[in-house]
């Protein structure tokens, strides 16, 4: 079950972890001798507040860490987005004594882990790595953008999004915060906001088709085993199939191999991956 722990504050610069000073640990990162710290924490929102794109990224975080064999603990918090320095949820905290390294971006985490030679892409050749990056970019631009559009711009689900943002907030914040977030999103994603739904869905379908062709009948995108692409695709597929987004779900469900891939025994048993459901806010402590 997910913990209710909170991130530690930045404090004593003389602290150490694993018998080494923080400076020594950060030097190890710089020169490529990084070791995954104990007590890594993945913070995320409960289902009542977790939007579709946030859920996809959270599941991608979980899949990538599991596939990589990197230990962490799930922490479900009602105010996870306000706890994050970037205002984004989910976010991962790697603790070095009292000095945390925080990742609120899945793609930054992947780049960091791969640079430390701890990730999943070490067995890919140069051509495969280039192709791998291209498909990840395709998912970012098409699948994740479609989920963002569905959550924030589509008239069919906009009210559900506003309701999610208001959940658990006292009056008058429950009326002010959702609309503040909506207009903030609209301002920051004006290009997506100006697009019509048909073009977004068409691009989503084209991306699913390209990924389906690339996967073929295999149980992972590359013969060497799961990569960040597999983790990201797993997160997106799982989130969409268990969402209320009927249009995205209908398109994705037409690609049987993508659906089967997400729940394949090769992926789920190889690293013991289990997608968890966020605890209900009713089970969270009132002081979160």
Automatic annotation (TrEMBL):
Residues 59-180 form the Mitochondrial outer membrane transport complex Sam37/metaxin N-terminal domain. GO terms for cellular component: SAM complex. Keywords: Membrane, Mitochondrion, Mitochondrion outer membrane, Protein transport, Transport. It holds the Pfam family GST_C_6. Its main location: mitochondrion. It is found in: Mitochondrion outer membrane. Residues 205-263 form the Metaxin glutathione S-transferase domain. One of its GO terms (biological process) is mitochondrion organization. The keyword Amino-acid biosynthesis does not apply. The keyword Membrane applies. This is Mitochondrial outer membrane transport complex Sam37/metaxin N-terminal domain-containing protein.
